[in-house]
Amino acid sequence: MLNNVKLFGRNYLKLKWNTEHLLIGCGNPLLDIVASVDKDLLERYNLKPNDAILARDEHMHLYKDLDEKYNADYMAGGSVQNTLRVCQWILGTPKVATFFGCVGKDDYAKILEKKATQDGLNVRYQYTNEAPTGTCAVLITGTHRSLCAHLAAANHFTIDHLQKPDSRQLLESADYFYISGFFLTVSPPSIIEIARYAHKRKRTFMMNLSAPFVSQYYKEQLMAAMVYVDILFGNEEEVETFAREHSWHAKDRKEIGQKLLSLPKENSERERIVIITQGHYPVLLFQGNNIKEFPVQQLSREQLVDTNGAGDAFVGGFLAQYIKKKSLDVCVRCGIWAASQIIQRSGCTFEGKPSFQE
Q: Which residues does the entry assign to the active site, renumbered to this chain (predicted)?
C-alpha cells in the first residue's frame, strides 16, 4: 500500500509493505539425525560420501544405529523447510514464509513445529495417522555429507490440504512459490496445482533440481512442472545428470545452463532464470543471453564443519533478497554468503543477527 506523507512542507512517498505470507514453500518436513561417522558405516549401508538418496529397506536400521552408537544431534530439516528457515533468519521479520508439508501425529512433529516456528516460519503441516514423522540421516565424514531420507509421513501429503479455505487464503497472499525436486516423489499434483496458480496470476514459481535421482527417476513429472518454472536452481552434479538424461551432448556447464534456459515455458513473457552452484567454484547465473559468474568465498579446511544444508542456505539467502526485489547480483551474493555461514556450523543452523551487506 502506498501512502503520500507530507514532511517538512514536502510530499514524500512512503512505502508500507505487508510482509506476511509473501513466500510459499512445499516440501518434505524431516527431523534431521546428524552424526559424524566413519567410512565403514557408509560402506555397510551402500552410501556415498556426498549424495542424497531416499531410504530403502536396507537402510531401515541406520537410524537406530545412529541413535545407539553415535553422538547424534536432532534438528528441524527437510530441504525446503531449511531454505525458508534461512530466509526468515536473514529477513528478521516473522511469517514472511509459509511452509506446507506432511508430518505424523507424534512428538517428532511437535519438535519440528516448535523449532521452525522459533525461526519465524509459518508452518501449515498436514497431519497423518498413517506414518510417523519423516527422518533424514545426515552422515558427516570430514567435510562431506551423505543424506539418507526416510520420508514416512512426508509421503502422505495430498492436494486437498492446499484446497482448504485457510490454505487457499495463504496461496492468494503469496507472490512467490518455491518447490523442491524432492517433492516430485510425493505429490506431483500439488506441484502442478501451485505452478498453474502462479502462472495464471503472473507470480513467480521456482524449483530446485534437488538431487541427481530426481532427473533420473522422475523425469516425466519434472518436465511437466518445468514449463512453469521461472527460476531454476541446481548444483553441478544435478544439472549434469539432467543433461545426460535428456541426451544433451553439452561440453560444459555453461552450455547446459543455456539449454535449461531455453526449455519450453508457458509464460514466454517472463524469461526463465537459471542458477547453477558449483561448490567452491563460481556460481553461474543465466539470464537472457548473459552468463554471469560470482566468486565463492574460500574457506580453510578448519572452517569447514558441515556442508549439509549449503545448497538450501544458498537458496534461502537468494530468496531473502529476491522477495525484497533486490537485483539478481545482490540475490546471488546473499546466497553465497548464507551458504558460507551454514557450512561453518553443524547442520543447517545459525545464530545472532545476519551480517550480510549488499
A: 312 (proton acceptor)
pLDDT, one tens digit per residue, over 267-277 is 988 999 999 99
Residue 305, classed as helix, strand or coil, is coil
What cell was used for 130? 498413517
In this predicted structure, what is the pLDDT of residue 18? 53
pLDDT tens-digit readout, 273-322:
999 999 999 999 999 999 999 999 888 887 877 677 899 999 999 999 99
| pLDDT tens digits, 109-167 | 998 999 899 999 999 999 999 999 999 998 988 878 888 999 999 999 999 999 999 99
Nearest to 140 by CA among 335, 343, 289: 343
Contacts of 164 (CB under 8 A, 6+ apart): none
Q: Do the beta carbons of residue 94 and residue 120 sit within 8 Å?
A: yes
DSSP secondary structure of 60-96: TTHHHHHHHHS--EEEEE-HHHHHHHHHHHHH--TTS
Greatest CA separation found in the chain? 75
The pLDDT tens digits of the residues spanning 175-196 come to 999 999 999 999 999 999 999 9
DSSP letters, 141-197, are ETTEEEEEEE-GGGGG--GGGTTSHHHHHHHHH-SEEEEEGGGGGT-HHHHHHHHHH
Q: How far apart are CA 25 and CA 101, in angstroms?
A: 9
Catalytic positions, written as ranges: 312
Give the helix/strand (H/E) hosting 292: strand 290-294
Q: How many Å apart are CA 304 and CA 341, to the nearest integer?
A: 10
